[in-house]
Amino acid sequence: MAEAYIVEAVRTAGGRRNGKLAGWHPADMAGEVLNALVDRAGLDPAVVEDVILGCVTQAGEQAFAFARNAVLASKLPVSVPAVTIDRQCGSSQQSVQFAAQAVMSGMQDVVIAAGAESMTRVPMFSNTAYHAKEGVGVGPFSPRIQQRFGVESFSQFGGAEMIAAKYGFDRETLDRFALESHRRAAAATKAGAFEREIVPLDVDGVPHVTDEGIRYDATLDSIGSVRLLQEGGVISAANASQICDGASGALVVSERALKDYGLTPIARIVDMVVTAGDPVIMLEEPIPATQKALKRAGLRIEDIDLYEVNEAFAPVPLAWLKALGGDPDKLNVNGGAIALGHPLGASGTKLMATLVHALKARGKRYGLQTMCEGGGIANVTILEAL
């Protein structure tokens, strides 16, 4: 089978809600990522055959063929097509997998996989606001779905509480994990670990190059003082991912493109899967998805040098570690979404950029990335750094 390679993987530094990136239109933010990918690769933008861009809240400034608008906001010629996809939090990880499938099938040679989300300018659930405001319809979950699963809606917060209870995680365990996320992110930032992957965005004449959400002075007490989201629960805003503005992307190419355009790959896509399971507990699916991916690749968890498991809520990566027998020292080594933010549709390629560059910086070989996603879906991508 033909191979798919990653030539560049970049991201913007995260912006907090109403923070430094609040003034950036999401299409422009995504356009800067597209520009950076072709510029850093030294590639003629005209040879890009497609842009596949993930975005979860496709409303307002992220509506009306958002991916196409990102291309129009970039230096890519108008001849480059684009499509917007929604696989919830895994949207841009799925962008990579779709791009790789196109390359591996021989249909295309140069595809950009990307994601963007301005959670400040296009708040979560604003794409369902019409129904609530106008009293039209019942929202995304039909009566048939509600009857089948015995719920009015599917809650990721509820799913996180279920996972914490199932795997026996108390609040202190979750808060300690959150604190470690901030500590690792702070250490990585101070060491310059993110410099290679970050695309600077101009904010009032100053380049935005540092993730805004990191709490350098975080303590267990300060994290523990944050109000719980549910009475009697263990999930708080402090041990869950931060609302974040950002964009990210990866340039995925064939072996033929490497030769034709003189490109140097930084990673090879080893294997990729997407699976689905229980939509109620929802966030547990990365566990069976990882098991399937490892089996397909002929690898064991011990063979993986680094893993990025999205920190949507602290119980998710902790349950993944416990079920897979993973090494905590290999998990989210530069911090995760609890500290760095989770810009929904951009998080897939954001994590991939961090994973690829972390592997190369450490001289390691295999990386695995997985995301829990709304509806009980999960993507897993295994990479080999080159």
TrEMBL record:
Keywords: Acyltransferase, Plasmid, Transferase. The keyword Transferase applies. The active site is at C89, H342, C372. The keyword Transferase applies. It comes from the Bacteria. GO terms for molecular function: acetyl-CoA C-acetyltransferase activity. Its EC number is 2.3.1.9. Residues 263-384 form the Thiolase C-terminal domain. Transmembrane segments: none annotated. Residues 5-255 form the Thiolase N-terminal domain. InterPro entries: Thiolase (IPR002155), Thiolase-like (IPR016039), Thiolase_C (IPR020617), Thiolase_CS (IPR020613), Thiolase_N (IPR020616). Belongs to the thiolase-like superfamily. Thiolase family. PANTHER family: ACETYL-COA C-ACYLTRANSFERASE, BLR7806 PROTEIN. This is Acetyl-CoA acetyltransferase. The lineage of its organism: Bacteria, Pseudomonadati, Pseudomonadota, Alphaproteobacteria, Sphingomonadales.
